Automatic annotation (TrEMBL):
Protein name: RQC P-site tRNA stabilizing factor
Family: Belongs to the RqcP family.
GO MF, one example: ribosomal large subunit binding
Keywords: Protein biosynthesis, RNA-binding, rRNA-binding, tRNA-binding
GO BP field: rescue of stalled ribosome
Domain RNA-binding S4: 1-62
InterPro entries, per the entry: RqcP (IPR025490), S4_RNA-bd (IPR002942), S4_RNA-bd_sf (IPR036986)
Subunit structure comment from the entry: Associates with stalled 50S ribosomal subunits. Binds to RqcH, 23S rRNA and the P-site tRNA. Does not require RqcH for association with 50S subunits.
CDD domains: S4
Alphabetized Pfam families for the sequence: S4
Keyword Protein biosynthesis: yes
Keyword tRNA-binding included in the entry's annotation: yes
PROSITE patterns per UniProt: S4
Gene (UniProt): rqcP
Species of provenance: Candidatus Xianfuyuplasma coldseepsis
Amino acid sequence: MRIDKFLKVSRIIKRRTLAKEVADNGRILVNDRVAKSSTKVDVDDIITITFGNRVVTVKVLALLDSTKKEDAGNMFEIIEEKRL
């Protein structure tokens, strides 16, 4: 699954266009490598996202094409969240 779609479906980022923009600006790392919006993610990948003044690191637990709001949190696990 593409990183932009994963971020949208898991509700880490609300809109896919915003996820694409964040990725294309180099603010997303997948397994410590800069990711483009088309980068594929798999289960157990580590994603690091820079949101303004904070950095969130998550581990991919599941890849689902669509989810309900209640189930979106089961797609990832927050490993670390820190402020810059």
